[in-house]
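Saturday, quiet lab. Running sequence design on the structure tokens for the scaffold JK sent over.
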């Protein structure tokens, strides 16, 4: 049995033939990866709706599925602009901004 948060590092070191300092570094790295899964970044996405042509590439690229085309409004060009339906769920990944061909999306991470 291997416990990462206890003093049973020597069992792992003897199996993989690594020294104690490397093992301590590895366990800190594993702890970071485990904690990182629970700490989610927040973001804020804004659109320049007058330039949006409603292609929907940002909607398809969003991993949290918080973007959609607003079918109730038209912008100055006559297209349905993209909007965020649940902005609190944004993780700030900027996949939507990289997919936008007209560069109308700005993503802020905090």
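Result came back. Writing it out in full:
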């Amino acid at each position: 049995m291997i416990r990462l948060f206890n003093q049973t590092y020597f069992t792992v070191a003897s199996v993989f033939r690594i020294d104690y300092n490397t093992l301590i570094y590895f366990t800190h790295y594993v702890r970071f990866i485990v904690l990182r899964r629970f700490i989610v970044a927040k973001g804020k996405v804004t659109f320049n709706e007058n330039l949006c042509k409603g292609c929907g590439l940002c909607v398809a690229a969003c991993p949290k599925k918080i973007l959609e085309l607003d079918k109730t409004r038209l912008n100055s060009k006559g297209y349905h602009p993209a909007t965020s339906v649940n902005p609190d769920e944004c993780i700030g990944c900027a996949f939507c901004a990289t997919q936008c061909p007209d560069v109308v999306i700005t993503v802020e991470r905090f």
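Notes for JK: The helical segments are 9-16, 20-38, 57-61, 95-99. The radius of gyration is 22 Å. Ask whether to fix the surface positions before the next round.
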